[in-house]
Amino acid sequence: MFEDILRCIEAYDTITIFRHIKPDGDAYGSQWGLASYLKYRYPDKQIYCLGTQAGRNSGLFPPMDEADDDTIRRSLAIAVDTSTADRVDDQRIWMADKICKFDHHEGSEKYAAEEVVIDTQSSCAEIITMFIESIEPVKNIPQQTAIYLYAGILSDTQNFTITSCSYESLLIASKLAETGFSMSRVNYLLSRISTNVYNMTTDFRSRMVFTDNHIGYAYCDKALMDKYHVSYNDCKDLVNEFNILEELESWVLFIEDTEEHPGMFNASLRSRGCIVNKVAENFGGGGHRQAAGTRALSREECEHLLTLLDEEVTRYSREEAR
Q1: Measured between alpha carbons, how far is 180 from 178 in angstroms, rounded to an integer?
Q2: pLDDT tens-digit readout, 188-232
Q3: 191-201 confidence digits (pLDDT tens)
Q4: What is the CA radius of gyration of the chain?
Q5: With helix as H, strand as E and coil as C, how does the chain read?
Q6: Cα 4–12–69 angle (5° rounding)?
Q7: Rounded distance, CA 177 to CA 172, Å?
Q8: How does strand 261-271 pair with strand 250-257?
Q9: Average per-residue pLDDT in the chain?
């Protein structure tokens, strides 16, 4: 399964690793985990982690590398955790001599010469770990490599709580933990928030709206961010504030995209069972069956999305009742 990408890696002296825009913990963890391992395995190769946008870093990951156009042109580019070509952060990836991809999203678009896409895995970091395991025992890799990958898994599985998380996710994570790092420390760094974010979260909870059809939603707009002096990245995890509410079947967080599309909203959709990525696809988005997203929606489009989600929840409920 990994042989073709491994052959590509061994054939190039320069490797550039890309991830998606507005990176999350899995994008960072997969990118830096792969880079860290390749630097250990192939010390004579030049390895670069590239990206122009910052995500919620939590202090776990280094700043992005810099590479000029000539470096990228002679490189093997590897995209991680990026399902579609337009979501690659730093579009200079298309300058590369050859492109490979690791991904875990359902319906992932084919845009690389060699691809490994396993949509049954709950994180891309799991796939990177599986790739490493095809070469050598994971317990032998550098501890820092394991930390990056474990953080990616922990982030995308929301501490092993999402529906796509399986025994295999735990098994892969346990192999990384064999390197001896502090799991509690990684969890703390991923979870910690500032007092400003804490206070904003309290305010945000009062803004949640709940429908009769077991859907919850809320808007996080610029006014809320400005009130508490927080950034877009600080708000992304607010979608998880819904997931402990027993009455909900599905929930949506609408965050104003203050950086690229002021006045427009990016939507994060989650569910306990109904298929939300099909709803997101109506607006140019996508993702997993129970975790998806889409970008740059007007208020009217947000309301339309909620209507389609209501229809999907109804369909799923009827199907479950049979």
Answers
A1: 5
A2: 998 888 999 999 999 999 999 999 999 999 999 999 999 999 999
A3: 888 999 999 99
A4: 20
A5: CCHHHHHHHHHCCEEEEECECCCCHHHHHHHHHHHHHHHHHCCCCEEEEECCCCCCCCCCCCCCCCCCHHHHHCCEEEEECCCCHHHECCHHHHHCCEEEEEECCCCCCCCCCEEEECCCCCCHHHHHHHHHHCCCCHHHCCHHHHHHHHHHHHHHCCCCCCCCCCHHHHHHHHHHHCCCCCHHHHHHHHHCCCHHHHHHHHHHHHCCEECCCCEEEEEECHHHHHHHCCCHHHHHHHHHHCCCCCCCCEEEEEEEECCCEEEEEEEEEEECCCCCHHHHHCCCCEECCCEEEEEEECHHHHHHHHHHHHHHHHHHHHHHHC
A6: 120
A7: 9
A8: antiparallel
A9: 94
Place of tokens 């909870």: 205
Whole-structure pTM value: 0.87
The answer to whether the beta carbons of residues 65 and 88 sit under 8 Å apart is: no
Structure tokens at 26: 């899995």
Which amino acid makes up residue 22? Answer: K
In order of 61, 137, 141, 147, 183, the CA distances from 179 in angstroms are 18, 11, 7, 9, 11
Residue 145 has pLDDT above 80, yes or no: yes
* Tokens 């199907």, residue located: 319
Q: How many whole angstroms separate alpha carbon 14 and alpha carbon 98?
A: 11
Q: Which two tokens stand for residue 162?
A: 């999402």
pLDDT at site 57: 65
Kindly report, residue by residue over 31-47, the tens digit of the pLDDT.
999 999 999 999 999 99
> Which residues lie below 8 Å from residue 34, measured CB to CB, with a gap of 6+?
17, 78, 80, 102, 128, 131
